TrEMBL record:
Keywords: Disulfide bond, Glycosidase, Hydrolase, Secreted, Signal
Protein name (record): glucan endo-1,3-beta-D-glucosidase
Compositionally biased spans, kind Polar residues: 343-357
Enzyme superclass (EC): hydrolase
Record organism: Erythroxylum novogranatense
Length: 455
């Protein structure tokens, strides 16, 4: 099986403690959704630990009580004018949608409005900050200030310049509004929530190399001409463009939250990109990348909180067929495509060490190393794959004994060998799509020790 496909599949096969930086969106533009209790049970059967609601459905919030799942709830764009003009409206909103359920229902964030700046409604845009301020005051009055954060969600359209990522800038027409919103968020410790979609980037540039770049698959990468950084996937490039835009106007301390990202598994015949294979690859490789804790080039060593779109299909959404085909699960609770998301799915693909199946002779120990001439893209895919398996990659993370030299080649070498040493040590455990081989030469150096050796 090709390594890119393995990367797509294997990282959802992890059980253990779940994925604290992985959430999922629960849209309700549908008339065939399962009961809230069934949804709560479904989420508990997965490794997902956060869910974002677009509204504040009381039945859903209550059903998620005592599950430990973090809940993002939303005040709609239609709520913004009353929240802005009347502090009592915000108090009533919190009294109705938060206090009856908290803390049993683990509400962690309230989003006030969704892509308001993209609406073009200047009156609504001007009311957004006062609405957020009143919501924050209502939470503080209820002794929840700092416990439940307040933010709003933006389309990537707020970034007018994003290529290369280091040139990222907010749209000049939104600059003053963004500054005011971000100052509020800095004062209250809430994240900038953004919706990056490599899917749409591919639709606007449907070349094979762009698809590989968007799906985290092996590709030649794209070099940022301003700083020389090579990007290996569109997600990192989009997130770092937002990081650059924040830095450019003096908000280096604001955290980024990816409120939506996903890929449709089917669409209309004239749509480019939707397919089960692509959806599985994007979501699986995204999670693999996040689990590796590699971060982005401008924010290394940390994974951005990311909410995948979406839990279910929404059969009443308008627009092209893809809009109704983002669900990882069907309303009947079956999977749209199997990404091994359930806690009961098989454990990481580390082969059994049982002596009952010694089908081929084992090599005499040694170390697993990349072959010469392997591209950084292939090495990065292997690195993400191994570290997403739950193996201890801390030595190649910042501060680790093997972090320096800080290159993809060195980190991948350590990771490949780590995987091999934790497997049955058969020759195929050091294959990585024919990019690695077993050597008798110990690659350890200075304080960096590679596990392995003779058996």
């Amino acid at each position: 099986m090709a390594l890119s496909i393995l990367v797509s599949l294997c990282f959802f096969l992890l059980q253990a403690s779940g994925q604290p930086f992985i959430g999922i969106n629960y849209g309700q533009v549908a008339n065939n959704l399962p009961p809230p209790s069934a949804t709560a049970k479904l989420l508990q059967s997965t490794t997902i630990q956060k869910v974002r609601l677009y509204g504040a459905d009381p039945a859903l919030i209550k059903a998620l009580g005592n599950t430990g799942i973090g809940i993002v709830i939303g005040a709609s764009n239609g709520d913004v004018p009353s929240l802005a003009s009347n502090p009592n409206s915000a108090t009533q909103w919190v009294n109705s949608n938060v206090l009856p359920y908290y803390p049993a229902s683990n509400i962690i964030l309230i989003t006030v409005g969704n892509e308001v700046l993209l609406s073009g409604d200047q009156n609504l845009i001007s009311q957004l900050l006062p609405a957020m301020q009143n919501m924050q005051r209502a939470l503080t009055a209820a002794s929840l200030g700092g416990k439940v954060k307040v933010s709003t969600v933006h389309s990537m359209a707020v970034v007018s310049q994003s290529d290369p990522p280091s040139s990222g800038l907010f749209n000049p027409s939104f600059q003053d509004t963004m500054r005011a919103l971000l100052q509020f968020q800095r004062d209250n410790g809430s994240p900038l929530a953004i919706n990056p979609y490599p899917f749409f980037a591919y639709q606007s540039d449907p070349r094979p190399e762009t698809l590989a770049f968007c799906l985290f698959q092996p590709n030649s990468g794209r070099v940022d001409s301003r700083n020389g950084i090579k990007y290996m996937n569109m997600f990192d490039a989009q997130v770092d463009a937002v990081r650059s835009a924040l830095n450019a106007i003096g908000f280096k301390d604001i955290e980024i939250l990816v409120a939506e990202t996903g890929w449709p598994y089917q669409g209309d015949s004239n749509e480019v990109g939707p397919s089960v294979e692509n959806a599985r690859a994007y979501n699986g490789n995204l999670i693999a990348h996040l689990r590796s804790m590699a971060g982005t080039p401008l924010m290394p060593g940390k994974s951005v909180d990311t909410y995948i779109f979406a839990l279910y299909d929404e059969n009443l959404k308008p627009g092209p067929g893809s809009e109704r085909s983002f669900g990882i699960f069907k309303p009947d609770l079956s999977m749209s495509y199997d990404v091994g998301l359930s806690k009961g799915s098989q454990t990481p693909q580390t082969p059994s060490k049982s002596p009952a199946t010694p089908q081929l002779p084992k090599p005499a120990g040694g170390w697993c190393m990349p072959k010469s001439g392997v591209s950084d893209a292939q090495l990065q895919a292997s690195l993400d794959y191994v570290c997403g398996q739950g193996l201890d990659c801390s030595p190649i993370q910042p501060g680790g004994a093997c972090f320096e030299p800080n290159t993809v080649a060195c980190h991948a070498a350590y990771a490949m060998n780590l995987y091999y040493q934790n497997s049955a040590k058969n020759s195929w455990n050091c294959d990585f799509s024919q990019t690695a081989t077993i050597t008798s030469q110990n690659p350890s150096y200075n304080g960096c020790t590679y596990p392995g050796g003779s058996t």
